[in-house]
TrEMBL record:
Residues 1-15 form the signal peptide. One of its GO terms (molecular function) is metallocarboxypeptidase activity. GO terms for cellular component: extracellular space. Residues 85-378 form the Peptidase M14 domain. Pfam families: Peptidase_M14 (PF00246), Propep_M14 (PF02244). Its cofactor is Zn(2+). It comes from Pan paniscus (Pygmy chimpanzee). Keywords: Carboxypeptidase, Disulfide bond, Hydrolase, Metal-binding, Metalloprotease, Protease, Signal, Zinc. One of its GO terms (biological process) is proteolysis. PROSITE patterns: CARBOXYPEPT_ZN_2, PEPTIDASE_M14. The gene is CPA3. The active site is at E344 (proton donor/acceptor). The keyword Protease applies. Belongs to the peptidase M14 family. This is Carboxypeptidase A3.
Length: 383
């Protein structure tokens, strides 16, 4: 039996947190040459720049759109430095705290209950998984695949046969199983709701460092240490002390290994940039079935655009976004799953990580068109 495993690797979550970001700004800069790229890198050495795109300083290069967050205290100095060096820039967000609060622009139907139109905290997500099991026992089951470092459960939902109104989904679920991990970085997700909105890593302690957390999407055993500057425990892209050092990573890899003979495709969801990515991230070498992956990605992005004309680009991670090592996508591909994809969802930077709730349903509708296409393609072209 064939199945899809969509896993959401949560880089950030969306909620108002006790740490405030009043008058913090998000800049977008496009360095015209390597000299200007080096200026950004130098500014990062003397100022606390939180890179939104790319994910770290060392990825910054000429002719690349670079988005970063800066504190109110340092924003004027950053702006002056950019002006002095005649660099092209715009301020995407003038007050980060204001944008955080503005993104919750959908009224709750029933207070305290999970909503498909809103951002939901961990408690609501767990309650939703229980509701799905109770409401559709013949279709949905829940599997605990492990626990986090703070002993929160990692749940996977298994969706199988259904006879509903949606003919396409009914046909797909008659012929394949979907395994869905709603939240991978549960501890980090909870922390971003309760303590710090901009938190990205998990919450594991690091030896010989006061800094907390590992970037789970740098912790898989896929050329784990080949990209420089991922060995700082205080950095948001810290790869961990070893491949699969984190409980969350180990739980996911163990689950996939135990189901490897069934899994035909692996899909992860991130934000932001509007991209559909496939291997590799750790090398410029193309995978053996590159043409097939590119074909699926091209048609998938075309299908996605038919709903709201949202335009995605597609390609290998390394050349389309930036080089990364230790990603789940490359790991799953090297393990033997020959169709692996990562969606970088809306938008292209106007909202960045702060996509308003009013954009959730349109994003889901168009993305599901692409997911359904990929699933149908797998059914038709794999044995």
């Amino acid at each position: 039996m064939r199945l899809i495993l969509p896993v959401g690797l949560i880089a950030t979550t969306l909620a108002i947190a006790p740490v405030r970001f009043d008058r913090e700004k998000v800049f977008r800069v496009k360095p015209q040459d390597e000299k200007q790229a080096d200026i950004i890198k130098d500014l990062a050495k003397t100022n606390e720049l939180d890179f939104w795109y790319p994910s770290a300083t060392h990825h910054v290069a000429a002719n690349m759109m670079v988005d970063f967050r800066v504190s109110e205290k340092e924003s004027q100095a950053i702006q002056s430095a950019l002006d002095q060096n005649k660099m092209h820039y715009e301020i995407l967000i003038h007050d980060l705290q204001e944008e955080i609060e503005k993104q919750f622009d959908v009224k709750e139907d029933i207070p305290g209950r999970h909503s498909y139109a809103k951002y939901n905290n961990w408690e609501k997500i767990v309650a939703w998984t229980e509701k799905m099991m109770d409401k559709h026992p013949e279709m949905v089951s829940r599997i605990k695949i492990g626990s986090t470092v703070e002993d929160n459960p990692l749940y996977v939902l298994k969706a199988t046969k259904t006879y509903g109104r949606n003919k396409i989904m009914t046909k797909l679920l008659d012929q394949m199983n979907f395994y869905i991990l709603p939240v991978f970085n549960v501890d980090g997700y909870i922390w971003s709701w309760t303590k710090s909105r901009m938190w990205r890593k998990n919450r594991s302690k690091n030896q010989n460092s006061k800094c907390i957390g590992t970037d789970l999407n740098r912790n898989f055993n896929a050329s784990w240490n080949s990209i420089p500057n991922t060995n700082d425990p205080c950095a948001d892209n810290y790869r961990g002390s070893a491949p699969e050092s984190e409980k969350e990573t180990k739980a996911v890899t163990n689950f996939i290994r135990s189901h490897l003979n069934e899994i035909k495709v692996y899909i992860t969801f991130h934000s932001y940039s509007q991209m559909l990515l496939f291997p590799y991230g750790y090398t410029s070498k193309l995978p053996p079935n590159h043409e097939d992956l590119a074909k699926v990605a091209k048609i998938g992005t075309d299908v996605l655009s038919t709903r709201y004309e949202t335009r995605y680009i597609y390609g290998p991670i390394e050349s389309t976004i930036y080089p990364i090592s230790g990603s789940s996508l490359d790991w799953a591909y090297d393990l033997g799953i020959k169709h692996t994809f990562a969606f970088e969802l809306r938008d292209k930077g106007k909202f960045g990580f702060l996509l308003p709730e009013s954009r959730i349903k349109p994003t889901c509708r168009e993305t599901m068109l692409a997911v359904k296409f990929i699933a149908k393609y797998i059914l038709k072209h794999t044995s």
